[in-house]
Design a protein that fits this description.
four-stranded antiparallel sheet, 5 helices, binds 2-acetamido-2-deoxy-beta-D-glucopyranose
């Protein structure tokens, strides 16, 4: 919140203008009072001027898309024995819709309003020191209060190393079609990107394996409406590239992995056959045959002894 300081020349002008009227104005209806504007002005006073620095004492008011109105003020830099009376009036044109007062130096006031056509919020700060008081006036028009609704993300995708995001223009209370400013957060370490007017973003897809969590928010550009506040962030659109990667991986495994496994099995079976051919297993007869064979061997050993007998030579004599 930045406001123009109240200049001494302005003050003296108001001193002359309001000196006679101050007693009358004090109790009149703020909404009917046309001295309020979006500059902080001296409304009325008595005795010596009680100064207030609008640079360090702030009083922002915001109207959310839900028609919730929230005004906050803080008067930190006043002398300790200074008293502050804050009167807040919600007006629809000259009609007072709501009014309340507070004696807190730091406070906030929150209420729901209807969607009044000529809504404005008038603030009166009456600052009293000893027997002197000075009342300052400020008004927020409907449009300077407005916090826009977040833009709606229409698409978010990554393709061919380009990240693309598109979103819908927000709707302002006065139907403004220009003057929007956007901030795009890609959910990475980089600070959000500031974009003027445009409703899309195209940028390098820095890391094709990461998941982007994209969100966008908006406000009026400063040249159009001073002190515009950022909207809430939009819903998050997730650009999940890892899912695509996984699918590729699955396809690759199916198309390559399974034939590979089959090939391995075939090779294994083949190898076993080949090794059978190359290194045939040595047959090993059962034990009883071995015993039998051993017996035969013994017999063969004995036999020469038998055959050692003189061989009969049969000579046929005619
Ligand atoms: C400011 O407060 C004083 C009391 O401290 C009161 O007499 C005076 O009427 C108030 N002025 C306005 C404009 O409310
Ligand atoms: C109003 O604003 C104040 C300060 O920003 C905050 O503490 C408070 O929660 C807000 N109230 C609502 C209802 O939003």
């Amino acid at each position: 919140m930045k406001l123009l300081p109240v200049h001494p020349i302005l003050w003296s002008t108001f001193v002359i203008l309001w000196a006679s009227k101050s007693e009358v104005e004090a109790n009149s209806d703020i909404c009917e009072d046309d001295s309020f504007s979006d500059d902080l002005v001296i409304h009325s006073f008595q005795g010596e001027m009680v100064e207030m620095d609008p640079e360090s004492n702030t009083f922002p008011c915001l109207l959310y898309p839900t028609n919730e109105l929230n005004c906050t003020w803080s008067f930190h830099t006043l002398q300790n024995d200074t008293q502050v009376f804050v009167t807040i009036s919600v007006c629809d044109g000259q009609r007072t819709v709501f009014t309340d007062s507070s004696e807190e130096r730091v406070s906030s006031h929150s209420l729901r309003t209807d969607d009044y056509e000529n809504l404005s919020v008038n603030l009166l700060f009456n600052i009293t020191l000893h027997n002197n008081w000075t009342a300052y006036a400020y008004t927020y028009s409907k449009y300077s209060l407005e916090v826009l609704s977040p833009p709606q993300i229409l698409s978010a995708s990554a393709k061919d190393d380009i990240l693309s995001v598109t979103w819908r223009e927000p709707q302002s209370r006065d139907g403004a079609k220009a003057c929007f400013q956007y901030q795009l957060d890609l959910g990475d370490q980089d600070r959000p990107k500031d974009l003027m007017e445009q409703l899309s973003y195209k940028g390098p897809n820095a890391d094709p394996s990461r998941t982007y969590r994209v969100r966008v928010r908006t406000k009026f550009q400063d040249i159009c409406r001073a002190n515009s506040h950022w909207s809430e962030w939009s819903h998050i659109a997730t650009v999940e590239q890892s899912v695509y990667k996984l699918n590729t991986l699955v396809i690759v495994s199916i198309s390559l992995g399974i034939p590979m496994i089959l090939l391995a099995v075939v090779l294994l079976v083949r190898y076993q056959r080949v090794s059978k051919v190359l290194f045939p297993p040595i047959p090993r007869p059962p034990q009883k045959y071995i015993n039998f064979l051993q017996k035969i061997e013994t017999f063969n050993v004995i036999r020469p002894a038998v055959s050692a007998e003189p061989e009969e030579e049969i000579t046929v004599v005619e």
